Amino acid sequence: MKGCSLAPMAGADGEFAGMLMARAYHLDRGDTARNKVLIPDSAHGTNPATASMCGFEVITLPSDADGNTDLEALRFSVGDDLAGLMITLPSTLGALRFKHP
């Protein structure tokens, strides 16, 4: 990349900058097949809008019974067309329950 900013003025600016950098990275490598972004349903509402504005198809990942991202849905959604994953931490749902193996 010729340049980037590491000081966005707001969260949505950071999302937008990150998605534009992801898009530029894949396009610079000639990888036009990577056009999908995974976004948990617990993410902030600006996330799907930002990804869409940057030309990506948004795939929504559901939450599990504990409010965490459904890992099976995540595994199922990963493929050669995946450009990125947007995660909001802490979850917009306010759920921070983690299971330990």
UniProtKB/TrEMBL annotation:
Coiled coil: none annotated. One of its GO terms (molecular function) is glycine binding. It comes from the Eukaryota. InterPro entries: GDC_P, PyrdxlP-dep_Trfase, PyrdxlP-dep_Trfase_major. GO terms for biological process: glycine decarboxylation via glycine cleavage system. One of its GO terms (cellular component) is glycine cleavage complex. This is Probable glycine dehydrogenase (Decarboxylating) subunit 2.
